[in-house]
Write a structure and sequence with these properties.
extended, 7 strands, homohexamer, two-stranded antiparallel ribbon, alpha+beta
Chain lengths: 139, 139, 139, 139, 139, 139
C-alpha cells in the first residue's frame, strides 16, 4: 500500500469516531516488510471503521478483539500564560488529580505566532501547571 | 534464538495450516532486544502450532487469544498478459468487487523469464486489471 | 522529548531547506527507547539546521557525515483527469523516463472534494499515467 | 514521557509481580513516535499494576485483555562448571524435557570474575548442558 | 546472538570508553530479524572496541565511518531539593545556556528512598531548574 | 512500493555482488511509514547496484558513503555429523580462531530430510564444533 495514504487514512478514521490509531512495523513471510495498523474504537463504530479499512487499504481482512480499559477521568481547563490562554487536560484517578498535560496544538500556535521555540513555551507552561495544580498532584 | 531459523520456521508453521505469521521487534527488561512472533490460525490448529513453537523456538510459553475477523470474500482468476497468464485475487465486500491483486509469485516468474523489471510487469498487469475489472470496482 | 513536538519539528526543518527528514526507533543503554532523527540537507544548510535541532530537541549533540547521491533527474507535469488536473513527478535515468509518480496531495484533495475513495483515485491516475507515459517507460 | 524512566519502571512493575514486560515502537497520528508498553500479569495483579502505570507514566488510559497461555513446566537446577555452579532452567512439555537454558546472570558473573569472554562461558556451559541433559532432549 | 548478552555488552563497551551505544532492529535476507549495534567512540578507541565486538558478538565484520559532531558545551552542577542534592547537566550553545537536564540516576534514588513516584520528583526538579536557570534560558 | 517485491529484490541485489542487504523501518513526514533499504557492496559494484535500485524500487534517489571494515579472516570446512557433512564458517582474528558457525542451509536440509527439529540439529552440531575447535577458541 502506498505509504502516502496513511496521513489521509488517520484523519478519516479519527473523523469516524476512532479513539486512537497507530501503526507498527512488522515482518511477514518472504521478507515482506509491512505495517500493522491498529484502531481503538467503540463497539458501535466497529462496522463503519472496518468497512473503511477494507475499502481504503490493501488488506483482505480485519481482525478485532474486545479490550477493557481503565482510564483517568478527564477534565479540560484553560490556563493563562503571558502569551494567551492554553488548554490543559486534567486526569483524575479515584477522585485525585494525578496528571495535567497542556494541549500541544495550542503550544505550537503560540510558538509560531510569537517566534519563540516550542521548548521554551513548554517550559513556561509546565511551570504554570506546576504552580496552579501542584498541591493536588502531590497529595 | 538464532535468527537463521525464522525462514524455516515460517515455512513449517504455514505448512501446518497457519493463516498468517509475522514478527515484530520488541524490547524486554535488561536491554534485551527480542522478536515477538505472531501466528494467526484456526482454533483447530492451535495445539499443533503451539507445540511446534515450544519445540522449535527458545520460548518457554505461548500466549493466545481469540479474535474475530471480517474478511473480503475471495475469488481467484487468471488474466491474460502478453507474457502469459497471471493469477489475480479478487476481494468482494457485501457482494461488490472492491479489490483485485495480482499474484506476485507469477509476476516474479515473468520478470525472471523475460528479463524485464518487476516494476514494469506490475505496471502492465495493473493496467490490465484496471481495464478488465474497473467498472465493478468503481460502481 | 515529548513526542508531540515531531510534527512541528518536521515542518520547521523542511522550511529551513532540508531535503528529507525521518525517524527511526533505537534502543539505548538502561532500557531507554529513543528516537533517532535523521535529516538530509545541503552542506550550506548544515549549520542552520544543526542549531535548530540543538535548540528545539532534547539532544546535547548532532552528528553529521557527507553522503553522495545518485538521483533521477526530475520533471513536474500536470495530467488531466475527469476530476481535474493532477501533478505528476517524472524521473529520468541517463535520459530515459523510468518513473512517474502522482502528487499525493492532489489525489487527496480530489478524494475529499468528490467523496471518492483515495484508492479509486489512485487507480484512475495510475491508468492515465500508464497510457500517457508508457511507451517511454517500456523502452 | 522521558525515556530515562523505563529502566526504573520495568523494575517496579516486575517487583509488583508482573510475569513479563516489554516495549514496542509505534507511530501515532501527527507523526508522533511513541512507545507501547505491554505487561503480562496475573489477573490478581491487574489493578495494582494498572494503578502504577497510570501514576508513573504519561498515559491517560490502560487497555487490557485476557490471554491464555501454554507454558513449559519449569524446573531449576545447578550444574557444575570449572568456574563454579551455574543455574539452569529446564522446560518440560507433556513430561518430556525439551529445553535447557543457563541463567545468564550467573554466566555474566563468571565472565566478570574470571575475565573470560561471555561467549566462551556460554560455549562451555552449553556443552555441559548438552552432555548432562542430551539423552532426554533427543528422546 | 543470545539477546541476554546485550546488557553486559553495553556495560563493557561503555567501560572501554564508548561515547554512546544503541541498537536498531533490522531485517536481513531470508526473513532474518537482526539487531544492528551502533557504537559512537573516539578514533583512539576504535581498535579496542572493534576487537571487543568481534570477540563478544556473533558478527564476522565491523563497519565504521568518521562522523563530525556539533555538541553543546556541557557543565555539571548540583541543585538543592527538599529531598537532597541532584546533579544537573547544563548545555551551552555559543555561550548561551539553552538546556538543563537532571541526572536521572539521582532522581531514581530519591524516588526509591522516599517512596515517592519518579514522576513527582521530576516535576519538582524541573520546577527548581525552571526557577534557577530560567532567565538565562529565555534570553 | 509493494512489499512483495523485497524478496525478489534481495535476491537480485545479492546476485549482482552485494555483500549484504537489509531493511529498517523508518517514519517520514506526513505520517508515512517507510522502509530504508541498505546495501553493503564493493565500490566497483556501486553503479550497477544503484541503477538496479533506481529502476526496480520507487525511490528517486540513492545515497551512499564509504565505510571501512574490520573483518575476521574466513575459512570454510566440512564437519562430520551422524546425519552427514555440514559446512562451517571459521573466523580468525589476528591469526587466532575465535568463531565457528555452522551453515544454516545445511542444518535445515538435515532437519527436513530426517524429520528432526532444527533446534536439535543445531545442538548436535554446536557440540561437535565445541569438541573439534574448542582448544583454539579458548587459547
Amino acid at each position: 500500500m502506498s505509504s502516502e495514504i496513511y496521513s489521509h487514512l488517520y484523519n478519516k478514521i479519527l473523523q469516524e469516531g476512532a479513539l486512537d490509531i497507530y501503526t507498527e512495523s512488522i515482518y511477514m513471510k518472504k521478507n515482506r516488510p509491512a505495517v500493522k495498523l491498529s484502531v481503538i474504537c467503540k463497539e458501535d463504530d466497529l462496522e463503519k471503521i472496518t468497512e473503511h479499512l477494507l475499502k481504503e487499504t490493501s488488506t483482505f481482512g480485519v481482525r478485532y478483539s474486545k479490550y477493557d480499559r481503565v482510564i483517568l477521568k478527564r477534565e479540560f481547563r484553560k490556563i493563562k500564560t503571558i502569551y494567551g490562554k492554553v488548554s490543559v487536560k486534567l486526569g483524575y484517578y479515584k477522585g485525585n488529580l494525578i496528571k495535567v498535560t497542556p494541549e500541544y496544538e495550542d503550544c505550537i500556535k503560540i510558538a509560531d505566532n510569537h517566534g519563540i521555540s516550542f521548548t521554551k513555551i513548554l517550559l513556561e507552561i509546565n511551570n504554570i501547571i506546576y504552580k496552579e495544580f501542584n498541591i493536588k498532584i502531590l497529595t
